[in-house]
Design goal:
Radius of gyration: 13 Å
Distance between the termini: 26 Å
Largest sheet: 3 strands, antiparallel
Helix content: 25-40%
Strand order of the largest sheet: 2-1-5
Structural class: alpha+beta
Shape: globular
Number of helices: 2
Order of helices and strands: EEHEEEEHEE
Strand content: 25-35%
Number of strands: 8
């Protein structure tokens, strides 16, 4: 399990594969200086946070290797992130094409 650390003293846990996909989407939006809500659920609660270019964030992986990225999932997450409701973690679709983290698309 990896962690998304935000706002200095808060963290959310995700498996490394999910975290790698979220990192691409979050970094791309923050790079464009966009603020947005991010919602996820676990077995205990549902949580929504507001991410902005001023929010300190860090992505901490449990493993030492970044997973290959599923382009279809990145596209789904990017579309959702650009909606009025903001970024929501959705299940990974079947993998049509995977890319390495270095080849991840920067648009969305």
């Amino acid at each position: 399990m990896g962690s998304l650390l935000y706002d200095a003293d808060h963290a959310a846990e995700f498996d490394d594969r999910t975290l790698a996909h979220l990192q691409v989407i979050i970094v791309n939006k923050l790079r464009r200086r966009e603020s947005f809500p991010f919602t996820w659920s676990d077995e205990r609660r549902s949580m929504t946070i507001w991410l902005s270019p001023n929010t300190p964030v860090a992505f901490v992986y449990h493993g030492n290797r970044r997973p290959r990225l599923n382009r279809a999932w990145l596209e789904d997450l990017a579309l959702i992130a650009n909606s009025a409701g903001g970024l929501i973690v959705v299940p990974e679709p079947p993998e049509a094409e995977s890319v390495s983290a270095d080849e991840a698309p920067v648009s969305g």
